[in-house]
């Protein structure tokens, strides 16, 4: 056996041992891995009875049995619980359930007490203030302390089904990126199995330094989503570490603006866009499906083709991705990528499926203001800046409500920023803040103000804008991440 093949065999054997040691001990919380969660069980049990009116509602046999036993206890707080779920419901069924999963992951036993506080609490869970006290009463009145030990054998059985599938996926990903340790850079990746939710679901969350994936059976239904979450866990720290190298090619984000299927957070933050592009390329290589790279490009992840074409060279050498990535970034040829992206026809819709499949109820007809804003944003994303400016100016003069006008000023400010008019952009962003904008507009406005201050060399002022953005309740993940990165960059050296 050649020395290179011996080294590769040795690395794979170490990865194999590490991965299976990790996932064969499910309740090693310090190490991370595969587990089940008592808080999640209690919350999902409450969710189920809170949305069911009879013990014969169709569903999974275990879920039906748990529901029947709880309803037999006739909890005094059941009416209040159902009122709570009704009052806090969201139009999107998936988002409605997701807020309770987020809440479960930042809560611990005993007593459903918060595990994190302040700005560390995810925005969707922040809206559930007071739920802890209600869950404590439900837990006691439904006798969940007695029920929980009796259902654990079902969870153990489910872990046995998930363990080889998840371990194989983690091993495969670690092997590709040549990452041996599971507690990567002091962080954790945790997969929690839920048996009371709808089947074939996956929810991913990132809090502090922990990544959570919540899955429901069958074990192999959403393995691609687990791999995707694990790639985020491994690659996002590398992207932040090599931020300056990414910045060199950030002008490519202009091409992404014309992609209808691309979410706004990627159009606003190049590091997020580039990180996701790399992740999509790695997925395509691991699964040996080049079509995934093309799909990613069609959705607007503009660097995926470059990374996909560069990865075969990475595969032929010995360095880990954390050591090889700087060279890969430095080798990006902007002129070549410009030529490639000028030929792209972006898709109108995404090709990947959502983590939670749910039908939205019929939505009301958009208001004239919403229609005008949507049309202005469409022109803006097409980079017809003069027409977009006229459209946003028309909205400012045509509508009186602050919510609409703040979004129009935000549009005008972004146009000024793109046209390299920082003084005008700053004035317009400050005007946006005066009109009490929604959390998305508010948080991103503060991020932009931070970036303008950075351009003027005002590091303390930039840091203050970024820190304020982190306090905005309901700020989107992209704005929060951009603000966190801004705080790090503007810290005193």
Task: Summarize, please.
The chain has 493 residues and is mostly helical. The chain has three domains: 3-179 and 189-197, no CATH class; 242-342, no CATH class; 368-490, Tetratricopeptide repeat domain (Serine Threonine Protein Phosphatase 5, Tetratricopeptide repeat), CATH 1.25.40.10.
The helix-strand sequence is: HEHHHHEEHHHEEEHHHHHHHHHHHHHHHH
Low-confidence stretches: 1-32, 54-58, 352-364
Distance between the first and last residues' Cα: 50 Å
Mean pLDDT: 81
Tell me about this structure.
- It contains 24 helices and 6 strands.
- The chain is globular.
- It has 493 residues and is mainly α.
Q: Which labels suit this protein?
A:
single chain, 493 residues, mainly alpha, Serine Threonine Protein Phosphatase 5, Tetratricopeptide repeat, 3 domains, two-stranded antiparallel ribbon, globular
Architecture blueprint of SSEs:
Elements: H1 3-23, E1 33-35, H2 38-50, H3 61-73, H4 78-87, H5 93-105, E2 107-108, E3 113-114, H6 123-126, H7 131-141, H8 144-177, E4 188-193, E5 202-207, E6 210-215, H9 223-241, H10 243-247, H11 253-256, H12 264-268, H13 270-286, H14 290-299, H15 304-315, H16 321-330, H17 334-342, H18 368-381, H19 385-398, H20 402-418, H21 422-434, H22 439-455, H23 459-470, H24 477-490
Parallel strand pairs: 1-4, 4-6
Antiparallel strand pairs: 2-3, 5-6
Helix pairs in contact: 1-8, 2-4, 2-5, 8-9, 9-13, 13-14, 13-15, 18-19, 18-20, 19-20, 20-21, 21-22, 22-23, 22-24, 23-24
């Amino acid at each position: 056996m050649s020395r290179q093949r011996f080294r590769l065999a040795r690395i794979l054997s170490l990865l194999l041992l590490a991965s299976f040691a990790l996932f064969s001990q499910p309740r090693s919380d310090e190490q991370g891995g595969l587990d089940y969660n008592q808080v999640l069980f209690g919350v999902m049990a409450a969710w189920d009875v809170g949305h069911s009116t009879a013990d014969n509602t169709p569903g999974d046999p275990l879920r039906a049995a748990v529901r029947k036993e709880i309803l037999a206890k006739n909890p005094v707080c059941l009416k209040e619980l159902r009122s709570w779920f009704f009052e806090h419901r969201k139009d999107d069924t998936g988002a409605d359930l997701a807020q309770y999963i987020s809440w479960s992951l930042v809560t611990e036993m005993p007593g459903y007490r918060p595990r994190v506080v302040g700005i560390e609490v995810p925005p969707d869970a922040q809206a559930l203030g007071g739920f802890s006290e209600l869950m404590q009463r439900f837990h006691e009145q439904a006798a969940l302390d007695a029920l929980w030990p009796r259902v654990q054998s079902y969870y153990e059985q489910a872990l046995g089904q998930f363990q080889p599938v998840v371990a194989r996926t983690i091993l495969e990903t670690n092997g590709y990126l040549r990452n041996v340790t599971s507690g990567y850079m002091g962080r954790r990746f945790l997969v929690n199995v839920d048996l009371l939710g709808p089947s074939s679901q996956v929810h991913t969350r990132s809090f502090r330094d922990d990544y959570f994936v919540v899955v429901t059976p069958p074990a192999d239904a959403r393995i691609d989503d687990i791999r995707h979450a694990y790639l985020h866990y491994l690659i996002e720290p590398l992207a932040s570490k090599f931020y300056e190298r990414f910045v060199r090619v950030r002008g490519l984000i202009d091409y992404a603006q014309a992609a209808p299927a691309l979410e706004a957070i990627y159009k606003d933050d190049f590091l997020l866009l580039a990180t996701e592009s790399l992740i999509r390329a790695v997925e395509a290589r691991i699964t040996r499906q080049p079509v995934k790279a093309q799909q990613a490009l069609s959705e607007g992840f503009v660097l995926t083709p470059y990374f996909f074409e560069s990865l075969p060279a990475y595969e032929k050498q010995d360095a880990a991705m954390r050591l090889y990535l700087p060279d890969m970034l430095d080798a990006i040829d902007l002129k070549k990528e410009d030529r490639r992206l000028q030929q792209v026809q972006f898709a109108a819709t995404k090709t990947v499926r959502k983590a939670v499949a749910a039908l939205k109820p019929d939505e009301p007809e958009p208001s004239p203001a919403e229609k005008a804003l949507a049309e202005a944003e469409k022109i803006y994303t097409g980079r017809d800046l003069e027409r977009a400016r006229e459209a946003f100016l028309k909205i400012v003069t045509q509508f009186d409500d602050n919510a609409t006008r703040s979004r129009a000023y935000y549009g005008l400010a972004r146009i000024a920023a793109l046209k390299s008019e920082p003084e005008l952009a700053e004035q317009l962003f400050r005007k946006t803040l005066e009109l009490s904008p929604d959390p998305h507009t508010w948080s991103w406005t503060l991020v932009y103000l931070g970036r303008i201050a950075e351009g003027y060399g005002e590091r303390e002022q930039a840091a203050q804008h970024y820190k304020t953005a982190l306090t905005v309740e309901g700020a989107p993940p992209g704005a929060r991440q951009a603000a966190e990165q801004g705080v790090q960059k503007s810290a005193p050296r």
